[in-house]
Amino acid sequence: MYNVTYGDTSSSTVGYLATDTFTFGGTPVPGFVFGCSDDSVGDFSGASGVLGFNLGNLSLVSQLQLTWFSYLLASDASADAGGESDSLLQFADDGSVPPTSNHGRSTPLVTSSLYPTVYFFNLTGIRVDGQDLAIPAGTFDLLANGSGGVFPSTTVPVTYLEQAAYAVVKEAIAGSKVMPPPVNGSELGLDLCYTITSLKNVTVPKLELVFDGDGAVMTLQRYNYFFADNTTGQDCLTILPSVGGSLLGSLLQTGTSMTYDIAHEQLIFETQAAAASPANSRASLIMMMVMVMLNLAAWVLLF
């Protein structure tokens, strides 16, 4: 038997652990360990399974001894006329070079002694409209005891920043001269919200994440950190405060190719310039989050 609860604690699965021969790209893998779920909790958006890509012993990465894997979370608006998404998942175990271009930027992957199966990386700063924010030194550090740090998630849509960093980011955005007065966003469970009408002709402040590495700057699009919900008529910042660590959610990663070069212990990211912005939706915020998940046969879990 197994019992697994995922990182955001809103989804879980219970079932039996088994082994069988799985075939990947025509190559059979005997003795592959997998779970057969007979009781699942949470909205898996119709997915028929879950693929684990963390560093645990039973993950796909470990069992296939992958040297790299890459995913692109495409926006719902990028789907073609037949409803097919441009989301992409690739992986290899042959030591080949990850499929990146000269536009890709890399940052080292680091390990937490407290969470050794999770991918962490060093976020060194945040910029708003090209200006480095005065975030207290050490806010994003991965501490010697394994706490803190910054890690990604493909199942948690909203991004969480350490309280000290979030307060500075919120102040920089809300305090911009172009931004109208905010409104109460409690209905969506978010903190900094505006009416859709008030932001209709506003170019919100540009947000950039600065990582450890030469030129490792991730420039975000509006849809990576703002969400317009037609049901409530609100347009909200999809970033919230946290304590004990920071998490980069799936919305923030949408439209960016994320390549985990395990062999060289680095993350290579490349923003897809052609990625379309999700249109406003009448669905709830949570449903919108689900739509930007991988439209594949399974979810991809990084922790």
Automatic annotation (TrEMBL):
GO cellular component: extracellular region
Keyword match Ribonucleoprotein: no
Keywords: Aspartyl protease, Glycoprotein, Hydrolase, Membrane, Protease, Transmembrane, Transmembrane helix
Domain of life, per lineage: Eukaryota
Regions crossing the membrane: 283-302
SUPFAM superfamilies: Acid proteases
Keyword presence, Hydrolase: yes
Alphabetized Pfam families for the sequence: TAXi_C, TAXi_N
Leader sequence residues: none
Limits of the Peptidase A1 domain: 1-270
Coiled coil: none
One Gene Ontology term from the biological process aspect of the record: proteolysis
CDD domains associated with the record: pepsin_A_like_plant
One GO molecular-function entry: aspartic-type endopeptidase activity
Gene3D superfamilies given in the database record: Acid Proteases (2.40.70.10)
Family: Belongs to the peptidase A1 family.
Protein name per UniProt: Peptidase A1 domain-containing protein
Classification lineage: Eukaryota, Viridiplantae, Streptophyta, Embryophyta, Tracheophyta
